[in-house]
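SECTION: protein entry
WANTED: fold as tokens:
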Amino acid sequence: MTAVLLALASAALFGAMTVAVRLGLLRTPDARLGAAATALVAFGVALAATPFGSGETNVRDLAVFGLAGLLAPGISQLLFTLAVRDAGAARASVVVGAAPLVTVALGLVVLDEPFELALLAGAALIVAGGTALVWERLRPESFRAVGMVWAIGCTLLFASRDTFVRWFSGETPVPSTTGAAATLLGGSLVLGVLALRAPWRRALPFVPAGICFGLSYVCLFEAYYRGRVTVVSPLVATESLWGVGLSALLIGRSERVGSRLVVGAVLIVAGGALIGVAR
């Protein structure tokens, strides 16, 4: 039950982070700076949470977490920020919500987790949700199709991270909060290099996104330390609903949240939930 609550908390915080990134980009339209600032603040949040973890510090394992962070949240956070910039917060959230499909596939192949027929039904719902998203007609004027490509790339990296964290959590004595901090440090380093020449004095609008991201990451790691990837990942995917709902509430008409977008989000989350129930 604790893993379920942590996964849901991570989803809500990630949805809030998505909207906060969009609001930050409206004030400072620099994706590299936004991604780097968000990751750096998130690292600070995770670092502050490390005293609450229990376990042993292992330098080698921390280095492994840091190297994993170069891809996610390193490159993945840049792709996600680009997706939010080009496709909007709501649509980026919905696409990333399909991560359970990739995560479960990796879980079956890499972690040797059991197969259930309900996985096919869940996959069908996720594909149907993606189809509804592709064929939607109501889109923001600033919408660019390349944003969906960024979101798909981000989804693949997110799913790889989830599978790695779940596997490595059973192999390392490093506590979840320390692992989260090390991963965010790796991501911050690669993003900091990419944004080295960015105008850092304009990074303040991304602080709320970083706080939400850091808390979301701590909850995510703790959930994966306590539960199976095929249970946690579908619950985390409810961030699509949070992203769509908060986008409509806080950003307003510029996101142009229409019925097909809502249907797509519901179908994708339902598919992820079905996958989770089957596990």
About this structure: The two ends are 14 Å apart (CA to CA). The chain has a mean pLDDT of 83. The CA atoms of residues 22 and 89 lie 6 Å apart.
